[in-house]
Design a protein that fits this description.
Helix 1 runs antiparallel to helix 2 and helix 7 runs parallel beside helix 9. The radius of gyration is 17 Å and the shape is globular. It is mostly helical.
Length: 180
């Protein structure tokens, strides 16, 4: 499994439990630059989000946020049930926002009721709830495109995920998306 960030010094060495634990620890580090490095390494080392599922019960909200962030980048249907359970049990707002993003990446609509209850929240959690609903197709096309427009300036990746989901549902054509 490739572990180099620069793409040149890669190996096909499997990451053992201890190594995965170290990367998870880095991803949840209090120093933001160390945490970003840990998340980058974890994203590079994990092939699927199911590798992270056993760690979603971490007592650290920072670690859970990091794991949800990586899970969103490595969708795997086998991880849906543990992700869903972790998101539905989540109490920390940042971790919950990241968890909703992970469930949207997995196209799992199970948190629909929870997300609808959070839509009116100010800030990141409300936006994450609306983006989740748009991502899983629970909002109408006009609402989904409005979410994509609102997030484009601040979070291009999130906006792109909503647009891609809408295109996959054939609710807009690529030409219409570019014209928006």
């Amino acid at each position: 499994m490739p572990l180099a960030l620069d793409g040149e010094r890669t190996t096909d060495t499997a990451l053992d439990r201890e190594g995965l634990g170290e990367l998870i620890g880095l991803a949840g580090h209090a120093d933001a630059s160390v945490a970003r490095f840990g998340i980058a390494m974890l994203t590079r080392a994990c092939r699927t989000s199911s590798e992270l599922a056993p760690h979603l019960a971490s007592p650290s909200a920072t670690v859970r946020t990091a794991l949800f962030t990586v899970a969103a980048k490595r969708p795997d249907r086998k991880a849906c049930a543990p992700l869903r359970d972790a998101v539905l049990a989540e109490k920390d707002e940042r971790a919950l926002a990241a968890g909703l993003e992970a469930l949207a990446a997995h196209a799992d609509p199970a948190a629909d009721k929870l997300a609808r209850s959070l839509m009116t929240h100010d800030g990141g959690l409300g936006l994450a709830a609306r983006t989740y609903l748009a991502g899983v197709g629970a909002l109408g096309p006009a609402e989904a495109w409005e979410i994509a427009r609102k997030t484009l300036d601040t979070d291009g990746a999130r906006a792109a995920a909503v647009i891609q989901a809408e295109l996959a549902r054939n609710r807009r054509t690529p030409a219409e998306a570019e014209a928006e």
